[in-house]
Amino acid sequence: MEPHQSTTPFGRRPLTLAHVASQAAAKARPPEKFAHKWNVFRAICAGRARLGVSERALAVLDALLTFHPETILAGEDLVVFPSNRQLSLRAHGMAPATLRRHLAVLVDAGLIVRRDSPNGKRYARKDGAGEVEIAFGFDMSPLVARAEELETLAEAVRAEERALKRVRERITICRRDIAKMIVTGMEEGVPTRRAGQGPADWTSIHEMFRAMVARIPRTATREELEPVANDLALLSDEVFNLLETHIKSQNISANESQTERHIQNSKPNLPIDLEPSLPKGRAADFGSLDQESRAPQKSQDGADAKTARVAATIKAYPLGMVLEACPDIKDYAKDGVNSWRDLISTAGLARAALGISTDAWREAQDTMGAGDAAVMIAAILQKGEAIGSPGGYLRALSAKARAKEFSIGPVLMALLRGKLAKQGRARNATG
Question: Which one of 69, 101, 251, 288 is most buried, counting C-beta atoms within 10 A?
Fold first, then answer.
């Protein structure tokens, strides 16, 4: 008598139409069809989000595949029958309840089929010649039947990842270009209006830029990022045209010395008041600033004190921590931010784009130290529209530093907590 292969699960586990469809697809595969089990597994790993399979479920599938002795999945002998204990060991010690849950996920996803015995145990019955007559366990036939489908799915996911990477690269380049062009336009006094048309000033352009950047979520799909990338690319082109038009309108001599003099003397003071008064209480927007400043007193020439302040900042807060809390400052860097010296010079560029005057920047450096002042510029930039008057805000913090009521720690910790909270919300939304 031919052995009967089970089609329903043991015990109280239900049989769904999806399970029936998986078994029908596996049964309909041509007998000569085969698949490389690890190639199929890699395809499933790539497309796991669309399949609804978690990383833990993949660990269980990986363990199941190790119980099939051949690399090639072919023929009818594709049922593996490890005990829960053996399977748990190969799944890195996964708890029995967790193991059962993820096995159910693999079955529901149509990647394996249950072939349960009458008593629910997994084993193989052999004939008189020692050959397996029938096995009760998990059937890998769906992996062979769906091999092409899974590979197509994986390639679609990889293509989407490449497209997402390209749009993120485009956003990064546009952000860097716009930030540096705004700084150049402000420092060189390039007009923003032509024949009565265009933005009122460079501060307005920077506000437009920061509003676009604020639309970028920490985790986003390509469809969400593409409109932002398009808007940034358009703004980048418009800002570049402003600079290019300004250059064409100038009668610059070809003489190198004249050109050099022009460059050295073409950084006028900003023509508008960029620091309106700050409402009382706004200086506490970043949280409590109740610790004393650690900046030492200035020496006679001021150089030793400035060096000591930078060193104190380096000792208290690693540069990596600052960049983790305030990543937007890197958009303004000429050659990356690889040291505190880079951060301080980059902050000097970013403060101009924020509309913070040279006087306010110098005051902040003198009162809180060059390192802390640079961190505060990065923090103000990161907060974006939450700080209505960056220049007035920085002056208020300088006043706190003079009163020894300023500490940079709460600023960084508040930004890091906000970043982690946002990442947690994004994970919950996608998970």
Answer: 101
Residue 212 makes CB contacts below 8 A (sequence gap 6+) with 228, 231, 232, 235
138 and 166 in a common domain: no
pLDDT tens for 173-220 read 998 899 889 888 887 888 888 767 777 888 888 888 888 888 887 778
Shared domain for 166 and 52, answered yes or no, is no
3-state secondary structure of 333: coil
141/176 same-domain check: no
pLDDT at position 386 is 80
Determine the 3-state secondary structure of 354 from DSSP: coil
Q: Max Cα separation, the chain? A: 104
* Percent of the chain surpassing pLDDT 90: 26
Q: Which two tokens stand for residue 18?
A: 């999806």
pLDDT in tens, 31-74: 788 899 999 999 999 999 899 999 999 999 999 999 998 999 98
Tokens representing 169 are 């690269």
145, 180, 215 - which closes a domain? 145
* Distances 54 to 36, 41, 104, 268, 295 between C-alpha atoms, Å: 22, 13, 12, 59, 50
- Say whether pLDDT at 297 is over 50: no
Residues 334-379 pLDDT 10s: 778 888 888 998 998 888 888 888 889 999 999 988 889 999 999 9
Does 67 map to a domain?
Answer: yes
In a domain, 243, yes or no: yes
**Residue 312: inside a domain:** yes
Report the CATH number that the domain containing residue 99 is assigned in CATH.
1.10.10
**pLDDT for res 278:** 39
Residue 11 lies in a domain: no
For the beta carbon of residue 254, count every other beta carbon within 10 angstroms: 6
How many domains are contained in the chain? Answer: 3
Tell me: do 316 and 411 sit in the same domain: yes
pLDDT computed for residue 30 by the predictor: 79
Please check whether residues 188 and 294 belong to one and the same domain.
no
CB 88: neighbour CB atoms within 10 A?
Answer: 18
For residues 105 and 115, what is the distance between their CA atoms, to the nearest angstrom?
16
**CA-wise closest residue to 416 among 379, 386, 385, 389:** 379
Total residues belonging to the chain: 431
Residue span of the structural domain in which 374 resides: 287-430
Q: Is the pLDDT of residue 271 over 50?
A: no
The predicted pLDDT at position 427 comes to 65
